[in-house]
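Just curious: can you write a single protein's sequence together with how it folds?
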Amino acid sequence: VEKAEKIAIIDHHRRGTEFIENAVITYIEPYASSTSELVTELLQYMFEKPKIKQIEAEALLAGIFIDTKNFSFQTGVRTFEAASYLRRMGADTTLTKQLFQDDMATFLARADVVKGAQMFKSNIAISTMPANAKNPALVAAQAADELLNIKGITASFVLSCIDGDIFISGRSLGDINVQVVLEKLGGGGHLTVAGAQLSGLTMKKAMDLLKKAIEEYLKEGEK
């Protein structure tokens, strides 16, 4: 970043304490579904007749797909307008969906994480990645998403160990703000999607800190 001559910040996450300074453009809109939605809007307004390649349109549409969980969360009128524009630009929805296909090993690893989840406070699922799993950060995020498909679960957290650090993927249906929970652990993100990274801790210690952060969040909501 320091080597770049010009910096533009486009994001749909709330501005955190750490922030990139001296940007030519800073466009932060927390109410947007995704950064892909914001970029798509900018393309339409910056050029009279914008032309983008099919693969570029599909990449942007994929970003909208994943951040809205297939148009289920944080989806507004502008989201569908952006998707409609990308479709006109040649984005193929079938090809876009194929970008998210997994191999059998990844699918089974995700299933093991879901199977091993434990309930906390009756509506929050917490699970951990096996130590020898491939692509642990990816599988953890996918498993956290998958857990929300289970009736009664309104938030999920999956912990994984990568090069000695503990990564936490948090997901929510909206009732529990996983961003605020994980900000207590130095992380951040969005209302329904957030993450955190902890160094120098065992998995058990990280789990204890996560549970403590959840309890603090819930107590603050009661006040």
